[in-house]
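The material for today's practical consists of a large collection of protein records. Read left to right, the backbone structure tokens trace the chain's path through space. An example says more than a description, so a record of this kind follows:
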Amino acid sequence: MEMNESMVGDAVTRLRRAHGQLAGVIAMIEAGEDCAKVLTQLAAVSKALDRAGFKIVASGLRCCQAAQERGEEPPMSVAELEKLFLSLA
């Protein structure tokens, strides 16, 4: 299934934010920041990445459902979508 920014715009925003957060974590490590602070920020990056992935899967589900409602063949099967969803777990 091909993606475009209008389909997953929120996911792209989340990924850009995570990109900035990750750069901050790297800078913290290089500066010798406190371990607890680094791990707190790393957990935030991880959560942002997870949410972006779930947003993409949800967009795929909506796309497939819309195709079915139009009487078209969905771009992915339920099994393929399930596999993608589980890959985020």
